Amino acid sequence: MTTLSDAVTAYKICAKAEGKSPKTISWVTDAVRYFSDFLGDGHHDLSKVTVHDLRRFILALRNAKAYSHHRFTRPQDRPLSPQSIVSYVGAIKSFFSFLAREQIIPSNPMDNVTLKVPKKVIATFSEAQLQRLLAQPDKGTV
């Protein structure tokens, strides 16, 4: 049995050796700890973590407040963005891929988890706004 703590230590060593950035390493380990806190004490044996645990975690994230687990920012009265949820899931999937690749666990239970993220539509300038913008430079100095 490999404990979560041992696996996180192994991930950090491997990620540093592979040249991953300190921020990436920190993000993945923070997301895994958040997932571990969600699972509770009974799931520190990695071989017992299932895809259903991650799906339950995704549902909990959808009900979580923004910045509820942030070190420096107080929670806000709005839900986590879909992009934040995908980021958490991506970090956890990356960690479990590492575990499977290093044969710490027999297979990656997170392989079949997919999420759809609504695409953000960025508002464009109207014709009138573009005309005002282009009228701003002093054409006499060009």
Helix content: 40-55%
N to C succession of SSEs: HHHHH
Q: Helical region count?
A: 5
Largest sheet: none
In round numbers, the mean pLDDT is 84
Q: Given the C-alpha coordinates, what overall shape results?
A: elongated
Kindly report the name of the CATH homologous superfamily: Tyrosine recombinase, N-terminal domain
Quick description:
By secondary structure, this protein is mostly helical. The chain has helices at 4-17, 22-39, 51-63, 82-101, 127-135.
Could you describe the 3D structure shown?
By secondary structure, this protein is mainly α. It has a single domain, classed as Tyrosine recombinase, N-terminal domain (DNA polymerase, domain 1, Orthogonal Bundle), CATH 1.10.150.130. Helix content is 52%, strand content 0%. Helix 2 packs across helix 4. The termini are far apart.
Write the layout of secondary structure elements.
Blueprint: H1 4-17, H2 22-39, H3 51-63, H4 82-101, H5 127-135
Helix pairs in contact: 1-2, 2-4
Features of the shown structure:
142 residues, single chain, DNA polymerase, domain 1, 0% strand
